[in-house]
């Protein structure tokens, strides 16, 4: 089987007779055809010693049975501990331990076997596939008769700008299928290949087999990123184990979206989702044909190409798609008509096909917030400025930024400041790395930075790593008239559950 940084979570090992210390034979589980024993330690014990059963969220365990002809019941008084998804229990005096061990939860006894985790947690029992990642997911907000897909790094294409994107045609995606008898539970079998995996970039440095995220198809059967799953608060890992290395999936909060990395094919990944990105509702989608008319800044070049980007079916947020170029009219305004656009769709404008020229505020001190479609189908917009064409008349200062970081910050951590010009949004720049001082704080001095310039801090080059006390993303900070700026980072993303 394929596994990366993986610890088996179904639990029971062949224990050894206390008298002879001869290992008992590994019986086959008659139900699953697989060894019925895996992860109890130690493998050889004496009467009165302790065994540890790992890897299951067992709930209110009332007893452990050792499967002799007359099962000996170990009552709660014999438990040493039950926490962090493991049980430590004393072995009764005089017991000759067999291979089979069972756990009693309430009045029900469960034998350790392949799908014990599913049984204990009331989720569908699904077999793993050693060549593919099996995803079992609960979507309470799935539309009746709707389809859910799982786009990911297993199927990619090269964009016009040379970057690699995930296939956005439903025919090229893995589809979830409903699980019979389980309302709103779905299963997907996702392939892996030589280029689908990598290492996570959020500071956890986990090796993964494939990255993917679910999305609901639109009412017309087409795909739009608007209906992808939301942020980490909307994703629950079912039966996540005690430590990061024991989890077969890694979820990263990335603002209004999620990054979901799948680490192993050893057993199915169980996830529960709630809602879609930014509260979007594919079940009650209202579609219109929209005409967008936009007035641009006076310094926009006559030969410039103005594009619209957003949560559209075609081209999505691609800044250089030819199908999203607006037409310049005799009055100098630019227009485009798009069909089947949903109310509540986020969008904005970009100049000449690069994000360095996306629209900014009229004062050029920050990026413009995403626009959102409403019931009005003839949309009139005005761009305040283009990021790459800004002329900022705000007063400038030489700012010294000093930041206090969480105690969890590693000694080798690289902390950068990123922001509006002249700071720059380059998450790999060497000129914006803060220096650690003797007091443990980090600082940097930057010259000729305008007032009201947006900025933020990032850790080890990863975006959205700074969090508040509730583990939500910290929004952009802004410079003011005070040149000595003292900031505090409450948490990094790695500090959050």
Low-confidence stretches: 1-49, 53-58, 67-79, 95-100, 111-120, 240-246
User: In order across it, which strands form the biggest sheet?
Assistant: 14-15-9-23-20
Helical residue percent band: under 10%
Counting DSSP H or I runs of 4 or more residues, the number of helices is 1
Radius of gyration: 28 Å
N-end to C-end Cα span: 28 Å
Describe the global form.
Answer: globular
- What fraction strand? 35-45%
Average pLDDT score: 77
Query: What's the main sheet like?
Result: 5 strands, mixed
Indicate the structural class.
Answer: mainly beta
The number of E-state strands comes to 41
Oligomer: single chain
Description:
With 497 residues, the protein is mainly β. The strands form 13 sheets. It has a five-stranded mixed sheet with strand order 14-15-9-23-20, with no helix packed on it. Strand 21 and strand 22 (257-262) form a beta hairpin. The chain is globular, with a radius of gyration of 28 Å.
Compact summary:
Helix content is 1%, strand content 35%.
Write the layout of secondary structure elements.
Layout: E1 40-41, E2 50-54, E3 61-66, E4 72-75, E5 79-83, E6 86-90, E7 101-105, E8 108-111, H1 116-121, E9 132-138, E10 148-150, E11 156-158, E12 164-166, E13 174-175, E14 177-178, E15 185-191, E16 198-199, E17 207-208, E18 210-211, E19 215-216, E20 235-237, E21 249-254, E22 257-262, E23 269-273, E24 287-295, E25 306-310, E26 327-328, E27 334-342, E28 346-351, E29 359-360, E30 371-372, E31 378-382, E32 385-386, E33 396-404, E34 415-419, E35 435-436, E36 442-450, E37 454-459, E38 466-467, E39 477-478, E40 484-488, E41 491-492
Parallel strand pairs: 9-23, 24-31, 33-40
Antiparallel strand pairs: 1-2, 2-6, 3-4, 3-7, 5-6, 7-8, 9-15, 10-13, 10-19, 11-12, 14-15, 16-17, 18-22, 20-23, 21-22, 24-27, 25-28, 26-27, 28-30, 29-32, 33-36, 34-37, 35-36, 37-39, 38-41
């Amino acid at each position: 089987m394929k596994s990366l940084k993986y610890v088996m979570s179904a639990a029971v090992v062949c224990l050894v007779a206390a008298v002879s210390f001869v290992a008992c034979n590994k019986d086959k589980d008659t139900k699953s055809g697989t060894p019925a024993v895996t992860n109890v330690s130690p493998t050889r014990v004496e009467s009165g010693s302790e065994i540890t059963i790992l890897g299951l969220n067992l709930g209110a365990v009332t007893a452990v049975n050792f499967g002799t002809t007359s099962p000996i019941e170990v009552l709660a008084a014999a438990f040493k501990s039950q926490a962090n998804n493991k049980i430590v229990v004393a072995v009764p005096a005089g017991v000759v331990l067999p291979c089979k061990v069972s756990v009693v939860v309430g009045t029900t006894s469960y034998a350790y076997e392949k799908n014990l985790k599913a049984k204990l947690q009331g989720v569908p029992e699904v077999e793993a596939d050693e060549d593919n990642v099996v995803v079992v997911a609960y979507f309470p907000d799935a539309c009746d008769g709707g389809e859910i897909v799982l786009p990911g790094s297993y199927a990619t294409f090269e964009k016009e700008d040379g970057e690699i994107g995930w296939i956005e045609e439903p025919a090229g995606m893995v589809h979830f299928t409903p699980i019979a008898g389980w309302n709103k539970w779905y299963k997907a079998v996702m392939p892996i290949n030589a280029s689908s995996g990598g290492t996570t970039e959020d500071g956890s440095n986990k090796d993964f087999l494939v990255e993917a995220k679910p999305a609901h198809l639109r009412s017309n059967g087409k795909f739009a990123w608007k209906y992808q799953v939301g942020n980490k608060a909307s994703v629950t890992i079912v039966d996540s184990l005690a430590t990061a290395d024991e989890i077969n999936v890694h979820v990263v909060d990335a603002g209004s979206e999620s990054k979901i990395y799948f680490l192993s094919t050893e057993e199915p990944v169980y996830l529960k989702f709630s809602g879609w990105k930014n509260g979007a509702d594919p079940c009650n989608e209202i579609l219109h044909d929209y005409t967008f008319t936009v007035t641009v800044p006076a310094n926009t070049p006559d030969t410039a190409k103005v594009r619209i980007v957003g949560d559209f079916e075609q081209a999505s947020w691609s800044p250089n798609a030819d199908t999203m170029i607006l037409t310049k009219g005799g009055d100098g305004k630019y227009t485009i008509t798009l069909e089947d656009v949903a109310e509540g769709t986020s969008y904005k404008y970009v100049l000449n096909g690069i994000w360095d020229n996306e629209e900014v505020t009229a004062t050029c001190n920050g990026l413009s917030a995403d626009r959102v479609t409403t019931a009005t189908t003839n949309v009139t917009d005005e761009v305040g400025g283009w990021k790459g064409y800004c002329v900022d008349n705000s007063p400038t200062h030489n700012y010294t930024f000093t930041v206090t970081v969480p105690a969890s910050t590693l000694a080798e951590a690289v902390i950068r400041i990123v922001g509006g010009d002249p700071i720059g949004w380059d998450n790999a720049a060497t000129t914006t790395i803060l220096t650690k001082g003797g007091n443990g704080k980090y600082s940097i001095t930057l010259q000729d930075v305008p007032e009201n310039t947006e900025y933020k801090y990032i850790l080890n080059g990863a975006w959205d790593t700074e969090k508040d006390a509730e583990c939500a993303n910290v929004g952009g900070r802004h410079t003011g008239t005070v040149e000595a700026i003292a900031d505090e980072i409450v948490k990094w993303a790695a500090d959050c559950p």
